[in-house]
Amino acid sequence: MESRFAGCGDLEIRPWRFGPNSELPAFSVCFDTLVRTNAKKELAETLRSFVFQDADAANTAEEAIRRLNDRGASSTPAKPIDRFDLAVQEVLDGQIVVFFEGWSCALGFSALEVEQRQASEPITEPSVHGPHVSTIESIDSNIGVIRNLLKSSKLKFVFRTAGEDTRRRIAYGYMDGIVQPETLAEFEKRVERIGGEEILETSYLEEWIGDSLYSPFPQVRYTERPDTAVASLLGGKIIALVEGSPSILICPGRFLEFFMASEDYYYRPIYSTLIRWLRVAAFLIALMLPSTYIALSTFHSELIPTVLLLAILNTREGIPFPALVEALIMEFFFELLREAGIRLPRPIGSAVSIVGALVIGQAAIQSQIASPVMVIVVALTGIASFALPQYNMAIALRILRFPLMLLAATFGGLGIMAGVILVYLHLATLRSLGQPYLAAPTPQEVRRLRDAFIVLPRRALLRSSRNRRPNKEPMREKSMP
Question: Does the record carry Cytoplasm as a key word (predicted)?
Answer without folding.
Answer: no
